[in-house]
Task: structure prediction
Amino acid sequence: MIDIQLLRKDIDTVAARLAQRNFKLDVSTFNALEAERKAIQTRTEELQARRNTLSKQIGILKGKGEDASSVMADVAGIGDELKSSADQLEIIQAKLSEFMLAIPNLPHASVPTGSDETGNIEIRKVGTPRHYDFEVKDHVDLGALLGLDFDTGAK
Result:
């Protein structure tokens, strides 16, 4: 899977490199998911900070012997909103993860652009292909001669 930080920082380059593989990256969908994730995550963190601040106030009020019921009610209300926000964040992160899993790997910079294998460049050749005095047989034909039963093996 492609690093999400790479998409966040340089999505245009990633889209261009994926185009070499004939894959069209839906940049607008990624940007929308990422913006929604960022907004929900920011809201969740703000709620957590507010809850922590109010919880400290409760401790201070109780230490002084004062009534902290109104602050406790606020904390309870924040808890419900925080749970809802955390659930939304989990859903959007699952969508983002699903989107990311559908993106193929980036081709190496040295890979030539082409529609199929005919665009490949032979860099080096090791050894020479073997030439036989007889007709080379398929492995299935050889197995049948040896008595292998492929139909039973497949079952």
User: Anything to note?
Assistant: The radius of gyration is 30 Å.
